[in-house]
């Protein structure tokens, strides 16, 4: 259910349930979590690319998985939460290519990309309140930080369907491209990131996420700690050497 393909230091992951609009099940979440953890521990993987098969990115939870039973959402969300924590804790950059509809938890997963592209025909909807639920998979954490509290309230309470251009104007995605060029453009971004200072990217993500809960003094202290860590990497040495030699750096991700 999760297709994996390696190319040029990039692990390309595809949610592959096109007949169900790539709706999420426990099994699919387990596969995605395993793929993320495997990539994180593989030094040959320098960047990840996540997209969906067919005409949707991900329609959120597949409610048919529960049948007629009343789901234990608190227990079920543990599977979602460990995927989100794996995405947030990646030590490599994550590019997300939204090829179609991204709704509910599918939209949440899309927002965890470090760089997010959308096809012109893509759409976004929070969707949770449409079935009487609250946001999950980290949406309550990320959405207000991306669009502000007032807009997040509107998107979560009214759940409008956003076009790709509307998502771009709100900062939900970084770029909108024609559908036939989506993977090409996403791979170009992933390729550029895969050639960069991988550890510095991971530390930057950590810093940005942490500083939301820190005072200025604490944020300055964390910057110093993480800068010290980045300064001990071989990539930093190479960056300084390349600067002095007036040539492009050749980062190794170490």
UniProtKB/TrEMBL annotation:
Pfam families: ECH_1 (PF00378). It comes from the Bacteria. Gene3D superfamilies: 2-enoyl-CoA Hydratase, Chain A, domain 1 (3.90.226.10), Lyase 2-enoyl-coa Hydratase, Chain A, domain 2 (1.10.12.10). Keywords: Isomerase. SUPFAM superfamilies: ClpP/crotonase (SSF52096). GO terms for molecular function: isomerase activity. The keyword Isomerase applies. PANTHER family: EG:BACN32G11.4 PROTEIN, ENOYL-COA HYDRATASE. Belongs to the enoyl-CoA hydratase/isomerase family. This is 2-(1,2-epoxy-1,2-dihydrophenyl)acetyl-CoA isomerase. It comes from Thermus thermamylovorans.
